[in-house]
Amino acid sequence: MAIKRTKAEKKIAYDQKLCQLLEEYTKVLIAVADNVGSKQLQEIRKGLRGDSIVLMGKNTLIRRCIKVHSEKTGNKDFLELSNLLVGNVGLIFTKGDLKEVREEVAKYKVGAPARVGLVAPVDVVVPPGNTGLDPSQTSFFQVLNIPTKINKGTVEITIPVELIKKGDKVGSSESALLAKLGIRPFSYGLVICNVYDSGSVFSPEVLDLTEEDLMDKFASGVSMVASLSLAISYPTMAAAPHMFLNAYKNVLAVALETDYSYDHADKIKEYLKVILVLQCSVRTMIS
């Protein structure tokens, strides 16, 4: 028979486990675990087994463990995690690719009924079609202003109806109707809300950026620096090529308007003479 551990022993074991994870891992995904059941969490753990570990626990206990670990090791990087422990969240420690781990976690979403009092995470639309309910249920639809008709002895919804808007609380009538229709409109799973990587914290949207996106953003930034530098005549690496080119254009313009000569200017003068001759020839032919 297994010996039941006391609360103090459980806390010590949890502290040791978390400290070990902080020693071994440098990448952590912070995930919101609202409406995620234990069975679903177990499936997620199985799916991530190998290079990732899911750790759940009380935020106060995790904060204390992180603080103690930072004091013992002198590593203050993980203190950034403490500020992110708000609400029902868990930590996913990983040695794998952050984007791939997030995508793997997103696979484990399960459908859920619309329970009374829940805040709808998405819009809920009841599709048109036969409901399979008998005509005695018509009054139930009328209360919710859902147009129906009787077709072959059953109630049929005639048009799509937006039953619940995102952010609204689910009422008893809406919950009962969706249950009668067998609709499970919501899906829940771990939702990554923040990413920690070697002391840096950023939004999970950053993981979606490709090399092309980064190059576009870098080029846009360089362009803005160059434009500002040119506007205020302040030399920078980004503006230097444009400044040299503009200066050369000015030198060339002066050479063309005066007798000043150098190789490239002489070539341009010859080109201009040819163009002028051609223009005169064309005008003569037209006249």
In short:
The chain is α+β, with helices and mostly antiparallel strands. Helix content is 48%, strand content 17%. The chain has 3 domains: 7-109 and 189-208, Ribosomal protein L10, N-terminal RNA-binding domain (Alpha-Beta Plaits); 118-184, Alpha-Beta Complex (Molybdopterin biosynthesis moea protein, domain 2), CATH 3.90.105.20; 212-286, no CATH class.
Description:
The protein is α+β, with helices and mostly antiparallel strands and 287 residues long. It has three domains: 7-109 and 189-208, Alpha-Beta Plaits, CATH 3.30.70.1730; 118-184, Molybdopterin biosynthesis moea protein, domain 2 (Alpha-Beta Complex), CATH 3.90.105.20; 212-286, no CATH class. Helix content is 48%, strand content 17%. It has ten helices and twelve strands. It has helices at residues 7-24, 38-48, 59-73, 79-82, 98-106, 138-143, 172-181, 211-232, 240-257, 263-286; strands at 27-32, 52-55, 89-94, 110-112, 124-126, 129-130, 148-151, 154-157, 161-164, 186-188, 191-197, 200-202. The strands form four sheets. The chain has a five-stranded antiparallel β-sheet with strand order 2-3-1-11-12, with helices on both faces. Strands 6-8-7 form a three-stranded antiparallel β-sheet. A two-stranded antiparallel sheet has the order 4-10. A hairpin with a 2-residue loop joins strand 11 (191-197) and strand 12. Helix 1 (7-24) packs across helix 3. The longest helix has 24 residues, at 263-286.
